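Researcher: Please predict.
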Amino acid sequence: MVLLGSLLVLLFPGVMLSTSQIFPFPPPVTDCVEAHRVCATDPQCEALYRGLELCAADAAVSPLGEQAASECLERQDALLAKHPSLLTCKCQRGFRKEERCLRIYWRVRLLPGRDELEISPYDDSLIDSPMASLVSASSFMQLDGENQCLKAAQDCGLYEKCGALRSEYVLACTKPLPGTSRCNQYKCHRALRRFLERVPEEYSLGVLFCPCTNTLCGERRRKTIVPSCSYQDAESLQPNCLHQQSFCRRDDLCRSRLADFLSNCQPSHVTGSGCLKDSTGLCLRAYAGLIGTIMTPNYISNSSADVSLWCNCEGSGNQWQECLKLQRLFTHNSCLRNSISWMGSPGSLPADPTQPPAPRPSSLVQKDELLSRNHLPALNNDVVESEEEEELTQTVEEEDGDEGGQFDVIPLYSEKATVSNLGSSGTGGAASLCASPTKPVLLLLLLLTAALSWG
């Protein structure tokens, strides 16, 4: 028995090593809400965090004085030294606690440097591949003379979720305020963000980045986001780009989307895609993330795919060069230009270094399917549908039902978009990996027991 125990002690470290090699996953990135929850259990940490919130409130009113800024930085350094997870935490796009998470992210970066404003607060590690769902969208967008933007809009209408949320933002962006001819830009931006966050990218990005060969198609593409409300000012007066950026950085959501864009759409002359991160998919997502903020970009004409912010550099003074640099991030950005062009000809750019898996629907709209398969993601932050959206969906169904009952014959999304069974391969693979190391161990134990009994 002693010999058997010694052999097991010697054998199991090797088994444990091989098991760890089977699961070479990096440690998960901490969510900022979870990092703050841990901090709140420590009275000293929570006091430091509350102090930083007061600093942020004072800074929102007027710039901090030298002494106040120094005291706030001391609190920030003490907090991060005590709980470094608050410095490395990230957030998830479109999830229910996104704004709360972003508020925590920026509170511990009260006075960020310029380099920190170009670091995305979002965690992209949960995305299977930067190109996965975009492959599905671009594969049906070939320049064959057909109006691809009209086709993308029709495909969106056939998918109930996409059609309902698209109708919602069109209504919000075209309905005038009572007693005026102006739209409610706040509601318009919010509805646009809901559309982009809740509709699978195969549809939402297909509508935004459909390739065009004529001005009729280009006009439909340019008007996709209802630019008269979401893009332009009510009086059609362009603000200064630096002023627009300054207002954006006062809002946690807009500042985060801008930082995500600066991080994922940095141009580079070294990579084949023209992007520093060599991923056109991440750049397209980051660009789409700006839509629905004060820095909403859009196409500048019906005859090209060039995009720009609704701003100019008049009155920039000695910050003229800085303002031009901000403008050129949209008008002369090789990474962004190649990313948009790639949607029309995905074979023109080098393949993504990692082979993309089969595209799957966004987790925000697959709650029912996930529950039915008993395969829930690690973070269950599905956005709860509002009553207003449900009423709108029913209205759209009734309207289309009167025209011919199209929604009655729509196939399920998973059947329509060639999506693999969600979680089937991953779960089965993990089970087989977990089970395989135990078979040789059991066989070895049986042989050892038999040998000892014979001896």
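Model: The chain has a mean pLDDT of 74.
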